[in-house]
TrEMBL record:
<dbReference type="InterPro" id="IPR003441">
    <property type="entry name" value="NAC-dom"/>
</dbReference>
<dbReference type="GO" id="GO:0003677">
    <property type="term" value="F:DNA binding"/>
</dbReference>
<protein>
    <recommendedName>
        <fullName>NAC domain-containing protein</fullName>
    </recommendedName>
</protein>
<dbReference type="GO" id="GO:0006355">
    <property type="term" value="P:regulation of DNA-templated transcription"/>
</dbReference>
<dbReference type="InterPro" id="IPR036093">
    <property type="entry name" value="NAC_dom_sf"/>
</dbReference>
<keyword id="KW-0804">Transcription</keyword>
<dbReference type="GO" id="GO:0048731">
    <property type="term" value="P:system development"/>
</dbReference>
<dbReference type="Pfam" id="PF02365">
    <property type="entry name" value="NAM"/>
</dbReference>
<feature type="domain" description="NAC">
    <location>
        <begin position="8"/>
        <end position="160"/>
    </location>
</feature>
<keyword id="KW-0539">Nucleus</keyword>
<keyword id="KW-0805">Transcription regulation</keyword>
<keyword id="KW-0238">DNA-binding</keyword>
């Protein structure tokens, strides 16, 4: 990681659930608890366009992960991230709300002459009421005396495919960019051919 490349080694794939992102990564970041391995970098969202994340954020497949400081104004040099009004709760295994997930889309330019892109960001926030651990209570007391503390969010960014246009793509966060392999397509085509032959000989 010394060279700024946060890609995983060959054979490894980073595919955490929403609960894991909040409990095992964002919670550690916000509570100042060491996270091992510390593979998700800190980035300044205002200095990066989404297409500049490669080589800077943790990348796996077509998704990029990074921490950033929470800001009301999510502007970049030539665009901004706009909330689309979709917020989902992040629940633990015991159906306890531990966080929330907001959806944003990147726009180039300034409103109202901006242009919407296919870049989507899922922004994960902690829900303090969902934690009752000693480490979290200690962290909250420490933050009261540290006025420079700012909340962190964990971001997952990906480029929406053309096939997802007009669909509720935000409900498909765990299957972004999933396609059939060439072998699956061959098997499906063989099934179609077999059905046609069966109808001819029926």
């Amino acid at each position: 990681m010394a060279d700024g490349n946060f890609n995983l080694p060959p054979g490894f794939f980073f595919s955490p659930s929403d609960e894991e992102l909040v409990l095992h990564f964002l919670f550690c970041k916000a509570s100042l608890t060491p996270c091992h391995p510390n593979i998700i970098p800190d980035l300044d969202l205002s200095q990066l366009h989404p297409w500049d994340l490669n080589g800077k954020a943790l990348s796996t497949g077509n998704q990029y992960y990074f921490f950033t400081k929470l800001k009301e104004n999510r502007t970049a040099e030539n665009g901004y991230w706009k909330e689309i009004g979709v917020t989902e709760p992040v629940l633990s295994t015991f159906d306890k709300k531990v966080g929330m997930k907001k959806y944003l889309v990147y726009h180039i330019g300034e409103a109202p002459q901006d242009t919407e892109t296919n870049w989507v960001m899922q922004e994960y926030h902690l829900c303090s009421s969902g934690f009752d651990t000693a480490s979290y209570r200690t962290a909250r007391r420490r933050r009261k005396h540290d006025q420079s503390w700012k909340k962190w969010v964990l971001c997952r960014v990906y480029e929406k495919s053309i096939s997802e246009e007009g669909e509720n793509w935000y409900n498909d966060d765990d299957d972004c960019g999933t396609e059939l392999s060439w072998l699956d397509e061959v098997y499906l085509s063989l099934d179609d051919d077999f059905e046609e032959l069966s109808m001819l000989h029926a």
